[in-house]
Write a structure and sequence with these properties.
Length: 125
């Protein structure tokens, strides 16, 4: 984990984001226009990867990637069991693209965003 003053806050918020993705993924589906649902998948997993890329050091990125891909795959399997959802390989591809893009952006430039936010909070040294 990165050296963060509010590490619990960052972790709790990240867990809430994961919970939001899970709830949104197993509840009744919302009709999407065209491939709009793939964009939602990509954006959700991009957000998760950027979030946890800001919380954890680059040495932990393989664990972050593995966990997020397992989350996406597990959700797709569960969706295959639900009568109001369907399991789609294209969804998993969009999830994977989001995770890869988010971790790449974290690794290249955005990984220290949590530290930047903390440094700019009132009362920061």
């Amino acid at each position: 984990m990165r050296p963060l003053r509010y590490s619990r806050f960052w972790i709790v918020c990240g867990c809430l984001l994961v919970l939001a993705v899970v709830v949104g993924s197993v509840g009744p589906s919302v009709p999407a226009i065209g491939h709009g649902d793939k964009i939602v998948h990509l954006a959700a997993y991009l957000t998760l990867a950027l979030w946890f890329g800001g919380v954890y050091r680059p040495a932990r990125y393989p664990v972050v990637v593995t966990c997020l891909l397992a989350l996406g795959g597990g959700i797709e399997l569960v969706q295959g069991l639900l009568p109001w959802r369907s399991m789609e390989l294209a969804d998993m591809a969009a999830n994977t693209t989001g995770v890869a893009t988010g971790i790449l952006l974290s690794w290249i430039a955005l990984g220290s965003w949590c530290q930047w936010v903390e440094a700019h909070l009132p009362g920061a040294r």
